[in-house]
Design brief:
- The chain is built from twelve helices and 14 strands.
- The chain is an alpha+beta fold.
- It folds into three domains: 47 residues, Uridine Diphospho-n-acetylenolpyruvylglucosamine Reductase, domain 2, CATH 3.30.43.10; 115 residues, Uridine Diphospho-n-acetylenolpyruvylglucosamine Reductase, domain 3 (2-Layer Sandwich); 105 residues, Enolase-like, domain 1.
- The strands form four sheets. A five-stranded antiparallel β-sheet has the order 4-5-10-6-7, with helices on both faces. A four-stranded antiparallel β-sheet has the order 11-12-13-14, with helices on both faces. Strands 1-3-2 form a three-stranded parallel β-sheet, with helices on one face.
- The longest helix is centred in the C-terminal third of the chain and has 21 residues.
- The chain binds flavin-adenine dinucleotide (FAD).
- Flavin-adenine dinucleotide binds next to strand 2, helix 7 and strand 10.
Length: 284
């Protein structure tokens, strides 16, 4: 189907994008890579009056170190995340996650900010941002604010972001002992189930664990029961994997679709939690 008619504007800076959104008075919509928004416009599920293109704002792109943390600009395309030397050295789970997204065309156009703003229940980044306890940085007409990833992802395609706000970046403390494991849908490579695990290991013991889950529920969540069970356990792969095998047990309202039923997804949560944890420990 052909989208409804719309005006097109290109923003040159974050402030310019926020001002253009305000001027559009509720009819404006940001477009970054367009890989999620354009299909919705073609189905007329989204009919913006004005598209505000943020794909060429220099300050939104790039991976950098800030005060010991790593910050990724919201306009950074998945390919740049997947091939970042900084991420590969300091926090390989993020590059690994980006590398699993879609195909080369999607990875060269789609952006981190677009992915988390859209919040598809099968998107990959949310699981990893949850496991890293990342913060989402947002700019709007009322100024700048920061939201923890665990509060940002709220429901199906629903995040803590107002229509007149723009995501500028995500920021997290780098963790080397972290990994992402995903059962992917063969055609699109979206996650049927994806688990990211980040571990704090000291003296052969798991001091703390954070696990983010995507694909299985309406939105990405932390696997808090597994996190609690892992704290204080020996940091050997078999002991950790035994706890993770039960990761799907307490979940309710699992997704069911043509790709996988709810029971299968529940079983796969345990399998992919184990894989993520084993891979994380192997990086320690
Ligand atoms: C064939 C195909 C396969 C895919 N496979 C996967 C996959 O395996 N895993 C996966 O995770 N994803 C997958 N995707 C989704 C892909 O990662 C998209 O790029 C991503 O979801 C949206 O990013 P975008 O930059 O294209 O956003 P757009 O489509 O431009 O925008 C999406 C939404 O985000 C808003 N938005 C964009 N940027 C910002 C910002 N900075 N601040 C606030 N709001 C913003 C827009 O207004 C819009 O509502 C796939 C997509 C396709 C088409």
């Amino acid at each position: 189907m052909i989208p409804s008619a719309f005006d097109y504007e290109r923003a040159t800076s974050v402030d310019d994008a926020v001002a253009r959104l305000a001027a559009a008075g509720g009819a404006g919509k940001l477009i970054a890579g367009g890989h999620s928004l354009v299909p919705l416009m073609k189905l007329r599920l989204n009919e913006p009056g004005t598209l505000i293109d943020i794909a060429r704002i220099p300050e939104l792109a790039g991976v950098r170190e800030v005060d010991g943390a790593i910050e990724i600009g919201a306009g950074t395309v998945h390919h740049a995340v997947a091939t970042s030397d900084l991420l590969r050295a300091r926090c390989p789970v993020v590059a690994e996650t980006a590398a699993t997204i879609g195909d080369p065309q999607v990875r060269n156009r789609g952006t981190l900010g677009g992915s988390i703003a859209h919040a598809d229940p099968a998107a990959d980044y949310p699981a990893t941002l949850l496991a890293l306890d990342a913060e989402v940085r947002i700019q709007g007409p009322r100024g700048a604010r920061t939201v923890a990833a665990r509060d940002f992802f709220q429901d199906l395609f629903t995040v803590d972001l107002a229509g007149d706000e723009l995501i500028t970046a995500v920021r997290f403390a780098p963790v080397r002992t972290a990994a992402y494991a995903k059962l992917y849908q063969r055609a699109s490579r979206f996650a049927i189930v994806g688990v990211a695990a980040a571990l704090d290991v000291a003296g052969g013991t798991v001091r703390s664990a954070r696990l983010g889950l995507t694909g299985a529920l309406s939105h990405a969540v932390r696997l808090t029961a597994v996190e609690e069970a892992l704290a204080g356990r020996p940091a050997d792969a078999d002991s950790v994997a035994a706890e993770a095998a039960r990761a799907g047990d307490g979940l309710s309202d699992l997704n069911a679709d043509i790709h996988a039923g709810a029971d299968y997804r529940r079983a796969m949560v345990g399998v992919f939690a184990q894989r993520a944890l084993r891979a994380a420990l192997a990086r320690g």
